[in-house]
Task: inverse folding
């Protein structure tokens, strides 16, 4: 299937590794040009250097960290300097530390909002008007399966990411007739550094080894394993495609069947 992404330009945040990089790779493989944004210039350069030559030629990058003053403006400037537009926004952010709901520090919660939510809203609100004017656009927000079924020990993530789901669902209804789709990706256990970090945290709390924690987690998933970043990226590329023009306002699970609710 031709996703018709050749000539389209994407901005992908959190793109130096993990899910963000997997999405950028999938979009590049489908012919899009991509501006990769993340806080580490060194990691971005390494990620781009590892790409095939024809894909490297369609890449740009910007080192900017969500939550730091000027980061959103830097991303917008970098993303528009080559083509003058962004057709696809993929908003992917890091996650807050684990803990118990009763132990949340309200000041830390507010700080995490400034890193995880506010920049996504600002990027979206800056780019959607141009998409509407051109009659085509894609907004993809990477959340978590915790927005559907709260994940124990990740209360800040569960709460903050859910606010993005509510906003994106509202936005989807406003812009659908203008050719702009707005969807949320809800990853389950995908084999990334973030998942390894959470497994290590669980191991430290339970006295088990990381391997034991990972095996038990995989056993709870109907697919019997963690997903791969490539599998996740492929779903994102489809949602960014012309073929997915009638899919909007949805939260798409990529979780191997882990969430049992209908």
Result:
């Amino acid at each position: 299937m031709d996703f018709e992404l050749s000539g389209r330009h994407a901005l992908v945040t959190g793109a130096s590794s993990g899910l963000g990089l997997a999405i950028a790779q999938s979009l590049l493989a489908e012919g899009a040009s991509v501006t990769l944004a993340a806080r580490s210039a060194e990691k971005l350069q390494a990620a781009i250097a590892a790409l095939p030559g024809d894909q490297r030629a369609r890449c740009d990058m910007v080192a900017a960290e969500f939550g730091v003053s000027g980061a959103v403006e830097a991303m917008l400037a970098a993303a528009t300097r080559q083509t003058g537009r962004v057709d696809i926004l993929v908003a992917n952010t890091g996650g807050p530390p684990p803990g118990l709901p009763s132990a949340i520090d309200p000041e830390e919660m507010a700080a995490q909002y400034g890193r995880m939510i506010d920049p996504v809203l600002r990027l979206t609100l800056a780019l959607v008007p141009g998409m509407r004017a051109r009659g085509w656009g894609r907004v993809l927000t990477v959340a978590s399966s915790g927005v559907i079924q709260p994940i124990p020990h990740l209360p800040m993530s569960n709460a903050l990411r859910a606010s993005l789901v509510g906003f994106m669902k509202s936005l989807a209804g406003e812009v659908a007739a203008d050719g702009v789709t707005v969807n949320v990706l809800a990853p389950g256990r995908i084999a990334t550094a973030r998942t390894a970090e959470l497994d290590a945290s669980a191991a430290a709390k339970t006295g088990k080894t990381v391997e034991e924690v990972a095996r038990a987690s995989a056993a709870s998933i109907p697919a019997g394993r963690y997903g791969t970043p490539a599998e996740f990226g492929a779903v994102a590329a489809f949602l960014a495609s012309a073929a997915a023009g009638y899919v909007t306002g949805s939260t798409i699970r990529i979780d191997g069947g882990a969430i049992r609710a209908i």
About this structure: The mean pLDDT is 95.
